[in-house]
Amino acid sequence: MVTYLEADTAPMKNTGHIKLYNENDFAGMRRASQLTAQALDMIADMVEPGLTTKAIDDFVFQFGMDNNAIPATLNYRGYTKSCCTSINHVVCHGIPDNKPLRDGDIINVDVTYILDGWHGDSSRMYNVGTIKRAAERLVEVTYEALMLGIAEVKPGNFTGDIGAAIQDFAESERCGVVRDFCGHGVGKLFHDAPNILHYGRRGEGVEMKPGMIFTIEPMINLGRPHVKVKSDGWTAVTRDRSLSAQFEHSVGVTIDGCEIFTLSPAGHSMPPYLPAK
Ligand code: MF3
Ligand code: CO
Ligand code: CO
C-alpha cells in the first residue's frame, strides 16, 4: 500500500511515503532548478579539450556561492565535490579531478543546487571537440529516452509507465538500460521516495498524483546494461567498457501533465548547444 502525504506536514525525512507538494513548493523547486539549469548552460560554453573536470567543479561551487546556493553533493555520504563528471564509459558519479578532457570525449555533468531548502537536480551531456557518430547517436537516444519518459508523467499514469517507455525505446535502438541507479523523489530532500526505475512494465510502480516531484535520469549504454563501481567507492563504469550517457530533469506532476523544473533558460537541450538564433 502506498500512502501520499501533504509535504508540509510530513516529517522531513524519507519515510517511504510519497510527498505531495503545493503551488508554493513548486515555485521553490522552480527557482532552485532554474539555477541548476543556468549553471549547466554556462558549462556548455566551458567544455573543450584541455579543460579539467576540477575546473568544472570549481565553477559549480563558485556559481552556487554567488547565488546563495549549496551544491547538494558536497559532503553527501562522504562525497566531497560539487558535481559529478562522468566521461565516456563512466555511467555516473565520476569524481572531478585534474585530468584534462580530450577531443572526442562525451561527458555528463550532474549538478544539484539547494536554494532556500529546495533541490534542483539535473544533468546533461556535453561533446568535447568533435565526437564520433556512435557517441552522438548514444547521446541522441538517451535524450529521447528521457523525454519519452517525461511524456508519461501525468496523474493516473504509473511510475512504471515512465520506465517502460524508456526501456522500450532504448532497447529498440539496441542500447542497454542501466538498472543499478534510478530516479528519485526530490524536493526538500535530495533523495526521497519513490524510486523511478528506467525499465519495467506499464502499470507497475505507484500511481502518479498532482504534487509529486521526482527526477528521471536514465543511464543508457551502447553495450550491455551492467555496471561496476570502482575502488574509490563512487565511479560507476560499464562492465564491457562501452560508452554510457545520461540526461536528468527534475519534474513535478500537475493536474493535467507535468512541469519540467530544470529546462534550460537558454533553450539548450542537446549538445552541441548552438546558441539560439
Ligand atoms: N546528482 C545525483 C543524482 O542525480 C546524485 C549524486 S550523489 C553523489 O541523484 F554523491 F554522487 F554526488
Ligand atoms: Co538525481
Ligand atoms: Co543528478
Protein described:
The chain is of the alpha+beta class and 277 residues long. It has 4 helices and 17 strands. It is globular, with a radius of gyration of 17 Å. The site of 2-amino-4-trifluoromethylsulfanyl-butyric acid (MF3) has 13 residues, from β6.
What's the short version?
This protein has 277 residues and is of the alpha+beta class. It is built from four helices and 17 strands. Helix content is 25%, strand content 25%.
Summarize this structure as a short list of keywords or feature phrases.
binds 2-amino-4-trifluoromethylsulfanyl-butyric acid, 4-stranded antiparallel β-sheet, alpha+beta, 277 residues, binds cobalt (II) ion, 3-stranded antiparallel β-sheet
Layout: helices, strands, pairs:
Blueprint: E1 4-6, E2 18-20, H1 23-46, H2 53-66, E3 70-71, E4 84-87, E5 90-92, E6 106-115, E7 118-127, H3 133-150, H4 159-172, E8 176-177, E9 183-185, E10 192-196, E11 213-216, E12 219-221, E13 227-229, E14 236-238, E15 244-246, E16 249-253, E17 258-260
The protein binds 2-amino-4-trifluoromethylsulfanyl-butyric acid and cobalt (II) ion (2 copies).
Total helical elements: 4
Low-confidence stretches: none
| Biggest sheet architecture | 4 strands, antiparallel
Quantity of strands, as a count: 17
**What class would the helix/strand composition place it in?**
alpha+beta
Helix content: 25-40%
Q: Are any ligands bound, and if so which?
A: 2-amino-4-trifluoromethylsulfanyl-butyric acid, cobalt (II) ion
Q: What is the average per-residue confidence, as pLDDT, rounded to a whole number?
A: 97
Classify the beta-strand content into a percent band.
15-25%
Task: Quote the distance from N terminus to C terminus.
Answer: 50 Å
- In N-to-C order, the SSE pattern is EEHHEEEEEHHEEEEEEEEEE
Shape: globular
Rg, please? 17 Å
